Amino acid sequence: MTQIVLQHYEKPAARRHLWVGLVMAVVALTFGIEQGLQWLAAHPMAAQGLQASLLAGAATGLGAIPVLLLRRPSERLMAPMLGLAGGMMLAASLFSLLVPAVQTVAASDAPWLLGILTAAAFLAGVAGMQTLDRRLPHEHVEDVEARGLMPNVALVVAAIAIHNLPEGLAVGVAAAAGADHGMSLGIALQNVPEGWIVASAMIALGAAPFRAALIALGTGLVEPVGGLFGVIASTLAGAALPLALAAAAGAMLWVVSHEMIPASHRPGRIGAGTAGLAAGFAVMTTLASVF
């Protein structure tokens, strides 16, 4: 197939078509970027949500820096680190997503109807993540080197993407809706230890330290993708804003229940994982109170 393509583009006419196609692609990309910037300029809260998700994702790369010097965290440290991240995500889903959604529903003209729809949206967020997890092949980061399991790098990266996408979605929705309450800062803080864990997993799979740090940063930048969907949903939601907030909360809760708590509460590490979970919830409670 490669030889056929090369032979095809050796012809002058085919090369002209290639250049025309490239020019059209560049023009389309430039137009899309220009329109996107104009839309963000007209929706400053959406721009704030996208920026918040970008900074939160970049914190994953910051957390990967220790692998250049310390390589990987000890098994004893892994449980409280994962528990801390889970506790902060759990509190963020409550304070920055569900509470604002419930307050908006309570102040509406049809609290019963909107309340039922909001609960349905919450369950839809959980179901969506469950479906994505079931249909997308992946391997959990905490299983690397455990029980002799050495999965493919692509499967590990896919698992991290599943984890980071709802984080970005939640940050984007909350920030664009003006209900951040410290969520973006909290998610950024919990992404720092996650970056170290992810980069360590990449090293265990054979990546050089610098490449492992770059992969960790790349997985963190999945969050702005979710953030983009979040700000669009928040901007277009209008009266249905509680549904967008609840759906993002459901997705976050799924990650905590399905990924973070099982990873931090493995046999022999339950106490440390619970301590980390409580500490993370306390940190996020403080941030929500201040902001």
List keywords for this structure.
2 domains, globular, mainly alpha, 291 residues
Task: Kindly report how far apart the N and C termini lie.
Answer: 57 Å
Overall structural domain count: 2
H/E topology pattern: HHHHHHHHHHH
Quaternary class? single chain
Uncertain residue segments: none
The main β sheet shows up as:
none
Shape: globular
What's the total count of β strands? 0
Rg over CA atoms, rounded to whole Å, is 21 Å
- SS content category: mainly alpha
Report strand %: under 5%
What percentage of residues falls in helices of 4 or more residues? over 70%
Please, what is the average pLDDT? 78
Number of DSSP helices?
11
Protein architecture, described:
By secondary structure, the chain is mainly alpha-helical. It has 2 domains: 1-42; 44-290, no CATH class. It is built from 11 helices and no strands. It has helices spanning 2-9, 12-42, 44-63, 75-106, 111-135, 153-176, 183-204, 209-220, 223-237, 241-264, 270-290. Helix 3 packs antiparallel against helix 9, helix 4 runs antiparallel to helix 7 and helix 4 (75-106) crosses helix 11 (270-290). The longest helix has 32 residues, at 75-106. The termini are far apart.
Topology:
Blueprint: H1 2-9, H2 12-42, H3 44-63, H4 75-106, H5 111-135, H6 153-176, H7 183-204, H8 209-220, H9 223-237, H10 241-264, H11 270-290
Helix pairs in contact: 3-6, 3-7, 3-8, 3-9, 4-5, 4-6, 4-7, 4-10, 4-11, 5-10, 6-7, 6-9, 6-10, 7-8, 7-11, 9-10
Short account of what is shown:
80% of the residues lie in helices and 0% in strands.
